[in-house]
Amino acid sequence: MLEKTSLENLENSEYRLKVFEKYKDLKKPDWKRVKYKYEEPQEFKKFDNFSTKNENQEGMEVKGINDSLEDLERLKSNYEYGLGEFFKLQNFAFYNQGQFIKIKERKKIEHPIYLTYVADKENNFLVDYNVIEVEDFASATIIISYNSSDDAESYHNGVIKVFAGANSNVKIIKIQTLNTKSRNFESSKIEVKGQGIVNYYSVELGAQVNAVSHTSYLLEDNSQAYVFPGYLADGDRKVDLEYSTVFYGRKTLGDIHGRGAVKDTATKVFRGNMYFKQGASKSEGREGEFAILLDKNINVHSIPTLFCDEDDVIGEHYASIGKVNESQLFYLMSRGLSESRAKKLIVESSFKPILNNIDDEALREHLLEELEERI
User: Where is the SUF system FeS cluster assembly SufBD core domain (predicted)?
Assistant: First the structure.
């Protein structure tokens, strides 16, 4: 159990203790669709296996989250996001890592910025809080990775917030490949101002229990957010993914295009939500999921929804869920591939629209190898 005493000697302890008083009375989550009842970690621990790369480029600032409290207060907003109060308050009280990245106005950052968290036997409790601010007319690519270096069980509760200024251009690539003894819980949001563009790639290949909730807010006219989730649910894993886009500004554009594969006896839930608020006239939103089912004993749910308070908008949703395309399979096997290899090739090709946009060849190859090994 996470105890109050573990917070008393940490930085920002007064704030942490206040949050804990609210946290301790909250009911623990229960995911009925994936049949998982939450279990709290046994103890708070430090997490030291973290690194950054390309953080010293001109026009940007990177610092630890404890050194960024004034920035966090300045960026504070009431736009809701995430897996609920339980995980947010746990994060605010027990965070043990996190970074604040600021890209200054009109600066174009040439090389991708990396934040890398690696779980292992000694670093198996990670609660991180990451905030990315990209000012007006600025651009950057940020790659955030969570992975395991051994087979030790680990716990992750993460928060990612992105604030994209007017006319900014931002690419966020989040990759989660924790081992399948681990539990992953993530809450994230993006706020985009006028004519800003954000592309968000969420690659979910790891963890035994994986729950993700992301929301994009298009706050001003002509803002854009494109979300590309990719997942693999195999073994007896439990995967619950939710991606939402909220349209406030006029002529805004928002897409959610999920791609994934499910096999063995895994359970997967994919929720895609579009909210058109009053005043978001002439906005367009499209969301859906393309899922390949590789076995008979899986349990899958796809839940696309549209909520509309404005008349003059375009909202589309779809769900394409089924077995491997038989004609594609026959064609590949007629060219000499085994059935197993042909299925792997089809699944890998479905991930290509996501993988091709990862600005790191070595990282792309690593993800393809992960898919190759587990499909």
Answer: 119-348
